[in-house]
Amino acid sequence: MPNNNTNKWNADLLKEYIDALRVADQRAIQIKEQADEKALDLARQIQTYKDEKANELREQINHERLDYLTKTEYNASKSSNRTLLISILGLIATYGTLIILFVSGAIK
């Protein structure tokens, strides 16, 4: 027949073991919660950084758009330049001989 003291000792040891497991579990849960909080904070920081970089890129693109002509502006400028060139070529055709003579010094 088992000794009553041995049973009490085994029960006390088992209780101590279970209490130690409970404390370890609670500590593990606390460590996990802290790690989760840190992970969320880091994720927030990363998202903030990404948002800032995206905003900077958007601003850069919007700023650069102001540096380029639109197709409408280009076509208007092209048409205006063509008109000016035609006028200059017309003047050269009309007065070309006089201009050559004047530039060459034949006409004073």
Number of domains: 2
Level of helix content? over 70%
Number of E-state strands: 0
Shape: rod-shaped
Pattern of helices and strands: HH
Overall structural class, as computed from helix and strand content, comes to mainly alpha
Q: What number is the mean pLDDT?
A: 88
Low-confidence region ranges: none
Tell me the radius of gyration: 45 Å
Q: Roughly how many Å apart are the termini?
A: 144 Å
Per DSSP, the total helix count is 2
For the sheet with most strands, the description reads: none
Strand content: under 5%
Task: Write up this protein.
- It is built from 2 helices and no strands.
- It has 2 domains: 1-68; 70-108.
- The chain has 108 residues and is mostly helical.
- The mean pLDDT is 88.
How would you concisely characterize the structure shown here?
With 108 residues, the chain is mostly helical. 89% of the residues lie in helices and 0% in strands.
